[in-house]
């Protein structure tokens, strides 16, 4: 295989987290008697971190104080409810096992809070990733390339030897800013037409197709 390192987004790429995100968002909103949202609405709120999720979910005109209250409540609730309905997408475990059997390093770089990334990777993918990191204070979130570049440095892998895999425009932009190849998946939170409009280099529809692309992508 050409690549030595495959870096994955989390939400919408390896894990279907949408229902737990929506439930936790709506719980936090309900505490403050704010209107709740459908799953499809929440789908378009995610991608830029959980604070931005809450900013988009609260009613327009909400004060900074209200946003922070909802955000704090969301974090507290989601920490204990991030793995209720969440599940790996079909074929993801088999894909990761195959990559590891072939000696390919695997990592996760997500805009989800780092506390949740660690919990979910441990719960669902124990031993399947060489490194996983989420949003942390003082580190620019995607689409800034900071965390992706830090992974490359950690493993002393060049940009040409790594690929970034995600499901959204944020992931496409992240790979571009990092100077890396990217692969966009259609089973996540954004439709294929949207990915094409946002400049996806390569689009795959199943984990099996993703593996084939990783094996011959040039």
Automatic annotation (TrEMBL):
Keywords: Hydrolase
Gene3D superfamilies: HAD superfamily/HAD-like, Putative phosphatase, domain 2
Any one GO MF annotation of this record: hydrolase activity
Pfam families: HAD_2 (PF13419)
Stretch forming the signal peptide: none
Protein name: HAD-IA family hydrolase
Record organism: Muricoprocola aceti
């Amino acid at each position: 295989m050409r690549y030595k390192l495959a870096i994955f987004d989390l939400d919408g790429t390896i894990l279907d987290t949408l229902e737990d995100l929506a439930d936790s968002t709506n719980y936090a909103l309900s505490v403050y008697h704010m209107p709740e949202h459908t799953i499809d609405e929440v789908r378009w709120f995610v991608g830029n971190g959980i604070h931005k999720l809450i900013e988009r979910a609260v009613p327009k005109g909400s004060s900074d104080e209200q946003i922070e209250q909802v955000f704090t409540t969301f974090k507290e609730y989601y920490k204990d409810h991030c793995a209720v309905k969440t599940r790996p997408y079909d074929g993801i475990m088999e894909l990761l096992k195959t990559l590891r059997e072939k000696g390919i390093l695997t990592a996760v770089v997500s805009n989800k809070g780092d506390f949740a990334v660690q919990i979910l990777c441990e719960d669902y993918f124990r031993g399947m990733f060489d490194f996983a990191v989420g949003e942390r204070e003082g580190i620019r979130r995607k689409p800034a390339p900071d965390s992706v570049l830090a992974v490359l440095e950690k493993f002393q892998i060049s940009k040409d030897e790594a690929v970034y895999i995600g499901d959204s425009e944020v992931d496409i932009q992240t790979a571009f800013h990092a100077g890396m190849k990217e692969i966009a998946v259609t089973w996540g939170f954004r439709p294929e037409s949207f990915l094409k409009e946002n400049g996806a280099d390569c689009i795959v529809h199943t984990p099996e197709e993703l593996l084939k692309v990783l094996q011959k992508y040039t």
